[in-house]
C-alpha cells in the first residue's frame, strides 16, 4: 500500500514536476505577514487586539482581483473574513486587520480570486462611455448578474459557491432585466449594473472566480492580560522589616506585605510581582552593596536561592508559610491583582539540588562544581544549572516547581535571565505549561541583543522586558515605540519599566522628581504593559558607584520605607492617574496602532495611540495624544503639529476649522486642538499632557 | 498501524507539545537567507558563481559558538562546508559564500554548535593573565585537547565525531602534555594550547558540541549561460529583404540571415535571438507604424502568429524550411552561438488553433472570440489564449510546440509577455521542460510591477528583462545595479537591454552616438547578461510620435540595413570591445559582487565588480572598475574616490602610497590608480573607462 501511494505520488509528480506544497496558486498571494520562521512558530496575537495581516497579491493581465484575510478559530471555524486593500500601489501589497476574541491556537490564511464584477464594471464603464460594444457589454453584465445570483463562477465546471440571499438574488436579477431593456438608454442600463445596491450584494457575497488560498499560518492568541498589565514590584521582606531592641534586623513577612496591597491596588496596579521568596544560601552570601563578605545582619540576595530549608519549591521561613502565601494571593485576588513570582533558575551552593543532583551542574577539572563566571568576574554564590547533562531530569524538576506555585495561585512568572538558559528548554517548557494551564503568563527578563530578545518571544514568552530604560533621546524613544508596536509586535509584547531593582540608568540620577514623572508617563503610555519598582515614589535615584543600579540595593538588605509619605513627591498620585487613564482608554491597552507627531522642539515628544470603533471594546473610537517635555530641568514652550487626517480620531468643526475636543487625563482640563497646537510644559508643575480625544457622539 | 503511529505521535507530542518540525534547535540559526516563500520555491544560484548565505545565530549565555554553511549537491552529498562570520556585530548576523559547480537541485543548510575550544581560549587567556584558577584552566585545556583528538564532544553520551587525522591528533596530544608540564611557566603552558598549529587543527576539524542544523533549503542551480550571456536580436526577414524590379518586397530568409552570423559572432555575442519566425495572419494585420489597415506590401507583425500555413510549430514559408532552420542553428553553433526563439503565446485570428480549439479562447456574449483589449484600446489582430477553460489541452499543445523547437536545436526561449499568462502555468511548464531538458533557458520579457517580475523569476524563469532602460539618473542607475545584484539575485537574473524593438526611451533620442555608447557600456558591465537589438550600430533613435518605440518599426515592415557601414559610428567596435572585456573578466560574468564608488560630479558614475580568487575560474582575483560620463553632450572632468580597503582587489605600493595598476579595456591604456583619481571623459572620444585591475602577481 505504501508502494502504491509512492507510485501514485511519482505519477502525479511526473505529470506536474512541482510538488503540490510548492505550487503557486492561480491568483498568487506571497510574502505573507506575520509569519515567523517559515510558519514553524506561531505569530503572537492577543484576544481583543486587532493585528495587521499583509500579503503581496497580483495576477496576470489586466483583470481585477479580490483579496481577503481569513481568521480561523481554534475549532477550525472561520471567525472573520475581511477584504484586504492595497496599501502600497504599484507594489501590490495588501493589508487587513483581524481580531481574535479568545485565547488559543488560531490560524489565518489569505484567499485571492479573480473578481469578474470589478473587471466588468471597469471595462463596461469605459466602453459604453466610448460607445463601443454597447450591447455586448450589457449582455455580458446581465449574464454576470445571473451567474452571481446562482453563485456560479466561470470557467464552466468550477465548484458552485454559496448563492446570495433571496433578496440579494432578486436585486441581481432585476439588474439583469434592466440591462437588457433596450427601451432605456445605454447609460441607464449600465447604471442598473453599477448601482449601489448591486455593489453591496457583490461586496457581501462576491462571485469569486479562480478562488485560491494560501496555506494556513499559525497564531498563538493569549489572554488580554499578557498584553495589558500594570506591574508593581516588591521585595516582601522589606515590608515590616525593622530592628529589634538589640538592633538586630527582623524580616518583614508575606502577611505584612499583604497589608500594603490596598495601597498598590488603589494606584491601579493589577500585577503584584514578588522577587524570589525562597530560602537564601549562606555560602558566599553577598553583603550590603554586593560586598563579598556578608555580615551576620545581612539577609543575602533572594537570587541566591536554596538553603537546607529548601530550594525553589520552598518559602523562606522568615517570610512565612504556604498558608501565609495563600492568604497573600487571596488578598491580592480580592483586589483584582494577580500574583507574579520570580523564576530564577540558579542555585546557591547550599541548594538541596547541589547535593542531590550534582549532575545538574557543571563539574570542573578539579572535581568542584562550577560557579557562575564571566572572566575575570566570578559569582561564587551562584551555581548555574547545566541544562545539557541531564536535560530531562532538570526539566521535570523545574516543571514540578512551577506547577507547585501555580497550584498556590501564581498566574504569572517573571523569568530571571532566560537568555542564559537554552531556548529549546523554554520552547518546550512554555508550551507544556500552557497546554495544561493556558492562563499562565511568562515574562522574559532578558536584556541582551535583539536576536535573543525577539526569539525568546518567538518561542513562547508572553511578555518581554525591553530596551525602554536606555532610550532617552526623543528620536530614539519614538523609533523604539514604533519598533515594538509595528516591527516586532508579532514576536514579543513589551513591558516598559522606568527602573527595576537592577536598573537605574544615569538619566534617572539627575532629573529629580521630573525625570521620574516623565519616564513614568512614557512607560505607561508607550506600552500596554508597564511596571514600577516599589520605592519609585521616593525618587530613589542614587547609584552604587560604577554600577547602573541603586546604592544600598534592596537585593542585599532590608529596605523598609515610610509608605505614609509615599505621595510626598506626587508620584503616587501620578501613578494613579496613569493607571486610571490606561483603564479608561482602549487605545492605551493595545500595542499596535501608534502615530508620531512632529513638534517644534527636540525636547517635546508627541505620539498618539488609536483604536477604531469596530475593534474597540467600548464600540467607540478611542484616541489618546501624549505630549511629553523630555527636559526635566527646563520649561519648554512650543507647538505640536497633528495631521488630523491620519489620526483616525473623531474630528468636529469649530470656528477655527477642524477641531478635536480633548481632555487632559492628568488634570481634567479640556482643550480644543487642531493642526497646530501650542503647549507649555514645565517640569515642576506639568511635565506631560495625556490628551484623550472626546468622541463627537458624546459632545 | 496508522493508529499505532498516530498514538506514538500523540504520546511524543504529550511529552513535548512542540511539533518536531517547529522545535528550535539547541544553538538556534534563524532568519535564513536565501529562502523564498518559506522554502517552497528554490532560490536561484548558478554553476560557477558564488552566492551569499546568511543566518541569525546566537545562543544562551557567554560560551562561544561556531556556524557553518553547508552546500549539498544534487546527489545529497556535502559539497562545501564553510565557516560563517558575523557581519553585523550586535545583530548576530552571519554570512558565508557558497559555490555550486554544476546545474541541478541543490540544497543548503546552516550548522551551528557550541565551540568549546573558542570558549576555553577566551577564558583561559583572561584567567591565566589574572593568575586565577591557573592549574584548573590548564588541566581543562589539556582534557579538551584529549577529547578533541578523539572527536569526543561533551556532554557525555554525545555522538562521537570524525577524529582529526593522525598528525593533527599528535599536535593536540603534545599540546596537552605541554599544558600539564608544571616545570614550565603558566604562560608557556597556555601558549601550547593557543599555538597556531593547535588553532589550525581546530579550524580544520572543530570539536562541535551540541551540534544542530537547520532544515535544508532548496536551490535551483542553472548552467552558467543562464547568468552570463550576450544577446543579439534580429528580425531574420530583414536580412536580404529587397524590392524586386516591380517594386514589390521580397522577404529575407533564414539562410540569408545566417550569412550575417559571423559579423555578430565577431562582435562577441553568444546568443542569436530571433523574433517569431512563424506564419503571420492576415486578418486585421497591422500596417506600417501600427496602422490598422495593412497594405499589400506590408508583411505584418511576426507577433500576429498563425495562418493557414500553420501556427507556433511552423516556419513562415517566406523565411525558409525546417532544413534551412537547422542549417541556421548549425552555423550559429559553429560560431559558439546559441539560438534563442521568441515564444509569444497568442494567436492571430487565422491561427489553426482558433478553428480547431475555439475553447482555448474566450467566447464573448455574442458568440465571437474575444480579441485582446485594454479598454478602450483594442487589438483585433490578437486572440489571447484563455488558460482556464481547457488548461490541460493548452498545456500539452504549448509543450509540443516548445519540444519541437528544442528538437531543432533551440536552447533558449525569449518568452513574450509572460505576465499576461498564469504563473501557475509557467511554474509547471518550466519545471516540466527543465526536467527533460535541463539546459533549456527561458527569458521572461515582462515589463511590469516588481511583484510579478520577481515572481516570474521565482517560479522558474532563468533570466528576466528589467527596468534598466528606464534608469537614467546616476543614483537610480546605481541603486538598481545594487538591487539586482544584492536584493533580488536569488529571485531573478537580469538581462540589460539599452533598446529593443519595443523600447526606445526618450533619453536615447537626443544624445546621438554618445548616449548609445554609454548605455551599451552600462548594460554590458552592469549585468552579466545583456542584449543589443540589431540596428543599434546605426543609432536608430527616432520615436514613432507618442510612443516609446522606433518609427518605421521593424515589427511592421522589412528593415534591410547596410551592414557594411555598421561601424560608421564606432558602435560595432565598442560592442566588440565590451564583449571582449566581458569574456576576459570573471568579474563581469557574475552578478553578485558590486561596489559603488563616490565621484565628484553627478554625471560621473562609478562602480566596480569583483570576484575573489577562490571563486574565480582563473584562480586569481578579478576586479573591474567602471566609470561612465552620463552626459552625452558635455565633457566631464572630475575625480573618482575609491576605498581600496573595500575593493577586494590587489593593492600594491607605489611612490604615492597604495596603488592599483589598471588597464582600460576600451583602449588598452595603463594607469596607476589610488584613493583619488582624476578622470576626464568626453562624449565624442571616450565616454567611459573600464579599468581592469592587474593582479599583483602578474606585475
Mean pLDDT of chain A: 96
What Rg of chain A do the Cα atoms give? 31 Å
Low-confidence spans of chain A: pLDDT under 50, at least 5 residues?
none
| Broad structural category of chain A | alpha/beta
As a percent range, the share of helical residues of chain A equals: 25-40%
Biggest interface reads:
A-B, 72 and 72 residues
Q: Trace the largest sheet of chain A across and list its strands.
A: 11-14-15-20-21-22-23-24
Number of helices of chain A: 18
Overall geometry of chain A comes to globular
Strand percentage of chain A lies at: 15-25%
Number of strands of chain A: 33
What oligomeric state is this? homodimer
Tell me about this structure:
- 2 copies of one chain form a homodimer.
- Chain A is an alpha/beta fold and 699 residues long.
- Helices cover 28% and strands 24% of the residues of chain A.
- Chain A has 18 helices and 33 strands.
- In chain A, helix 3 (134-150) runs parallel beside helix 5 (186-194).
- The longest helix of chain A is centred in the N-terminal third of the chain and has 17 residues, at 134-150.
- Chain A is globular, with a radius of gyration of 31 Å.
- The model of chain A has no long low-confidence stretch (mean pLDDT 96).
- At the A-B interface, helix 2, helix 3, helix 12 and helix 13 of A face helix 2, helix 3, helix 12 and helix 13 of B.
Amino acid at each position: 500500500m505504501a508502494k502504491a501511494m509512492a507510485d501514485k505520488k511519482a505519477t502525479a509528480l511526473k505529470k506536474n514536476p512541482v510538488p503540490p506544497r510548492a505550487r503557486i496558486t492561480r491568483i498568487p498571494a506571497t510574502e505573507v505577514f506575520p509569519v515567523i520562521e517559515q510558519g514553524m512558530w506561531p505569530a503572537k496575537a492577543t484576544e481583543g487586539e486587532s493585528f495587521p495581516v499583509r500579503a503581496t497579491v497580483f495576477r496576470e493581465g489586466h483583470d481585477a482581483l479580490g483579496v481577503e484575510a481569513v481568521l480561523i478559530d481554534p475549532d477550525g471555524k472561520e471567525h472573520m473574513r475581511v477584504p484586504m486593500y492595497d496599501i502600497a500601489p504599484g507594489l501590490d501589497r495588501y493589508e487587513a486587520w483581524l481580531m481574535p476574541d479568545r485565547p488559543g491556537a488560531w490560524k489565518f490564511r489569505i484567499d485571492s480570486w479573480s473578481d469578474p464584477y470589478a473587471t466588468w464594471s471597469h471595462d463596461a464603464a469605459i466602453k459604453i462611455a466610448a460607445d463601443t460594444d454597447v450591447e455586448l457589454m450589457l449582455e455580458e453584465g446581465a449574464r454576470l448578474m445571473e451567474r452571481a445570483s446562482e453563485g456560479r463562477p466561470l470557467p464552466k465546471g468550477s465548484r458552485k459557491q454559496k448563492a446570495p440571499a433571496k433578496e440579494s438574488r432578486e436585486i441581481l436579477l432585476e439588474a439583469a432585466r434592466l440591462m437588457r431593456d433596450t427601451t432605456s438608454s445605454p447609460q441607464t442600463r449600465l447604471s442598473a449594473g453599477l448601482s449601489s445596491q448591486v455593489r453591496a450584494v457583490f461586496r457581501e457575497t462576491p462571485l469569486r472566480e479562480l478562488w485560491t488560498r494560501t496555506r494556513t499560518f499559525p497564531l498563538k492568541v493569549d489572554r488580554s492580560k499578557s498584553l495589558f498589565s500594570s506591574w508593581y514590584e516588591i521585595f516582601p521582606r522589606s515590608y515590616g522589616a525593622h530592628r529589634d531592641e538589640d538592633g538586630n534586623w527582623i524580616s518583614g513577612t508575606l502577611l505584612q506585605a499583604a497589608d500594603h496591597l490596598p495601597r498598590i491596588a488603589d494606584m491601579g496596579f493589577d500585577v503584584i510581582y514578588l522577587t524570589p521568596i525562597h530560602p537564601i544560601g549562606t555560602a558566599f552570601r553577598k553583603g550590603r552593596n554586593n560586598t563579598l563578605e556578608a555580615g551576620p545582619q545581612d539577609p543575602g540576595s533572594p537570587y541566591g536561592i536554596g538553603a537546607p530549608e529548601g530550594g525553589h519549591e520552598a518559602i523562606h521561613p522568615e517570610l512565612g508559610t504556604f498558608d501565609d502565601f495563600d492568604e497573600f494571593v487571596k488578598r491580592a485576588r480580592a483586589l483584582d491583582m494577580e500574583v507574579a513570582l520570580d523564576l530564577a533558575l540558579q542555585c546557591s551552593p547550599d541548594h538541596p539540588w547541589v547535593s542531590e543532583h550534582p549532575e545538574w551542574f557543571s563539574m570542573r577539572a578539579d572535581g568542584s562544581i562550577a560557579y557562575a563566571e564571566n572572566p575575570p568576574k566570578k559569582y561564587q554564590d551562584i551555581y548555574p544549572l547545566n541544562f545539557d547533562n541531564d536535560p530531562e531530569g532538570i526539566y521535570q524538576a523545574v516543571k514540578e516547581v512551577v506547577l507547585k506555585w501555580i497550584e498556590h495561585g501564581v498566574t504569572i512568572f517573571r523569568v530571571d535571565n532566560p537568555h542564559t538558559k537554552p531556548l529549546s528548554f523554554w520552547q518546550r517548557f512554555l508550551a507544556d505549561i500552557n497546554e495544561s494551564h493556558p492562563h499562565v503568563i511568562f515574562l522574559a527578563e532578558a536584556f541582551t541583543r535583539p536576536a535573543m530578545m525577539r526569539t525568546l518571544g518567538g518561542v513562547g514568552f508572553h511578555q518581554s522586558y525591553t530596551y525602554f530604560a536606555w532610550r532617552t533621546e526623543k528620536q530614539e524613544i519614538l523609533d523604539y515605540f514604533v519598533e515594538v508596536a509595528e516591527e516586532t509586535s508579532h514576536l514579543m509584547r513589551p513591558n516598559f519599566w522606568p527602573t527595576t531593582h537592577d536598573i537605574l540608568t544615569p538619566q534617572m540620577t539627575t532629573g529629580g522628581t521630573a525625570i521620574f514623572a516623565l519616564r513614568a508617563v512614557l512607560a505607561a503610555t508607550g506600552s500596554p504593559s508597564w511596571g514600577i519598582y516599589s520605592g519609585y515614589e521616593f525618587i530613589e535615584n542614587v547609584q552604587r558607584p560604577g554600577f547602573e543600579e541603586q546604592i544600598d540595593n534592596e537585593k542585599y538588605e532590608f529596605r523598609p520605607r515610610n509608605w505614609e509619605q509615599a505621595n510626598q513627591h506626587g508620584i503616587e498620585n501620578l501613578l494613579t492617574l496613569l493607571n486610571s487613564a490606561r483603564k479608561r482608554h482602549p487605545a492605551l491597552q493595545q500595542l499596535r496602532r501608534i502615530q508620531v507627531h512632529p513638534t517644534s522642539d527636540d525636547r517635546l515628544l508627541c505620539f498618539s495611540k488609536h483604536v477604531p470603533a469596530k475593534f474597540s471594546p467600548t464600540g467607540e473610537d478611542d484616541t489618546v495624544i501624549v505630549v511629553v517635555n523630555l527636559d526635566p530641568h527646563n520649561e519648554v514652550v512650543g507647538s505640536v503639529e497633528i495631521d488630523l487626517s491620519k489620526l483616525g480620531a473623531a474630528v468636529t468643526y469649530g470656528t477655527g476649522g477642524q477641531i478635536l475636543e480633548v481632555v487632559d487625563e492628568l488634570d481634567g482640563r479640556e482643550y480644543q486642538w487642531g493642526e497646530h497646537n501650542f503647549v507649555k510644559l514645565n517640569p515642576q508643575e506639568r511635565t506631560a499632557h495625556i490628551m484623550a480625544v472626546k468622541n463627537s457622539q458624546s459632545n
